[in-house]
Amino acid sequence: MQIDLSGKTALVTGATGQLGRVLGRSLARCGAELVIHYNHNEARALELKEEAEAAGGRALLAQADVTDYKSVIKMRDHILAAYRKVDIVVANAVIQYEWTHILEQAPEDYISQFESCVMQNVYLAKAFVPQMIERKYGRIIGINTECSMLNLPQQSAYVAGKRGMDGLYRVLAREIGEHQITVNQVAPGWTISDKDRENGTERIPSYEKDVPLKRRGEDQDIANAVTFLASDQAAFITGAYIPVCGGHVMPSI
What we know:
Elements (H helix, E strand, L loop, with lengths): L8 E4 L7 H10 L3 E6 L3 H13 L4 E5 L5 H15 L4 E4 L15 H29 L2 E6 L3 H4 L5 H21 L4 E8 L5 H6 L5 H4 L10 H12 L10 E4 L9
Helix pairs in contact: 1-9, 3-4, 4-6
């Protein structure tokens, strides 16, 4: 089975991040026209654009603050002027912060996680779902986390934001499914990225011992799941929360 996204336009938010750049490459390799969203790291976005175009693809840069509705709408107008449509939206961007216990965690960190995990997805839906409804086609894929099920100490702001995102996605899947738009989430475990490869930190035995597969996943494992959900092979999957974590968490029935 081969995944062919030719003729599809895919937006990846946070595309310059450790995971985002792999998501973008994978979608582009399957033939999608890529929209590389960034907020501040224009230099990295340009590198990804050049990489996609060198491989024979087409790519567009799109700057926006995804926690600001007007900025997202401006980004939408910029994208639609170039590509006329967006078939696939991958919501990957998230605000980074220092994790600590609830009693020490700054209230602002909870607000930032709500804005980047929940409101980003509200704004993306408002911006791109209407034209998906018109065309009776769309794929919305959110990057959640295994932390949403683990609920471990010092994860409270992140978990609160991602669990809010989960609720939003499940409702959205029910609301727009009749238009043949799928809405799904991929939940990575503690994934190996380029930063780990550069720093030699691929192995974390204390984490791996609790993973049934006894290893950490690769960023490409996450990208493979996202690319599948973006394809026509996944046309009858919606409302799903899919852990890609080697069995570290297992949703129950």
